[in-house]
Amino acid sequence: MNRAKFPFQTMLEYKPFSTGLQLAALLLAFFLVFNGSCDGDGNDNPPDAGLYHTYAELDNDLHALATTHPQIAQVSSIGKSVEGRELWAIKISDNVNAQENETEVVFLGGHHAREWISIDVPYLIAQHLLDEYGSNPQITALVDNAEIWIVPMVNPDGHQYSVTAQRLWRKNRRNNGDGTFGVDLNRNYSYQWGGPGSSGDTYSEIYRGPSAFSEPETQAVRDFLQAHPPRALISYHSFSQLVLYPWGYTNNASPQHGLLDSLAVAIANRIRDVHGQTYIPEQASDLYLASGDTGDWLLGVLSVPGFTIELRPRSSVPGFELPENQIQPTFEENLPAALFLMEWAIAQGNVTL
Ligand SMILES: [Zn+2]
After folding, report:
1. pLDDT tens digit sequence for 21-76
2. How many angstroms separate the alpha carbon of residue 115 from the centre of ligand 1?
3. Class of domain 55-348
4. Which one of 7, 79, 183, 257 has the fewest CB atoms closer than 10 angstroms to its CB?
């Protein structure tokens, strides 16, 4: 820390305190400076996640994208978090202000607070679609023929806490009323809620909440998806490099297992083709049983194929703390997979699973 930043340093050296008030002012100044710079959440410095987006940066950048692409991008909030943050969605389509009878495709990120890359990948997909529209024929056709919705940060409170207080925080910031905080949003969806791979203990990392859809964040996603039933969805998480499909609550195969598996294989192949990274396609329960997640609810209630892509890295070192220089390649390898799923969804039209 640079001592020259403290103007009262000279006062301390050259002039003894003449009054108690002066001493009190000095102590207060020290408190403010050290408190502000040590907890990382002071009013003097905004939260900083390096090249990763913080909530405030995402808010700013999503609105900037919509401002610079007003014909094809629109930002709206699908609801609020426990602490009152907006859950921002960006819609990308031609005639974006109209609800057209086009295939809807949804990309979600940031259910889990510490999985920072899961926010930047869908954000960068949105940015890419907007930048390439009108010059890249594939992307122009996708934007013209689909209503693409991207909700990069489903859990802004948890993310903020991960940035400012506890890097490896996972859940949202619900006050459970017993000294613990947080519900695992990816165990809070209603289909098979309360089953294996979730916990009723409030302190657990996989605490499912007191009831299905108890959390405003999952309520908002539910209401949004029911209002805009997509033909396909990807929910980004990290880490392990996997392409997961339902079911998660049971090892049994779903009736749509064949289709889901072939799509997951196609997604994984497109990812590998970019930088040679292997993402293993498998049923979610092959990783571990998990009840109440997004994909099971989508398939079980809405009959929508939804995939959970566990992004880089492959293993627990570096685990959730993926170095910044891997943001761009992780986006690059996931872009063709996202485009593929959009094209598949458009080709399906109104075919029901
Ligand atoms: Zn996750």
Report:
1. 554 544 444 444 444 444 444 456 899 999 999 999 999 999 999 999 999 999 99
2. 6
3. alpha beta
4. 7
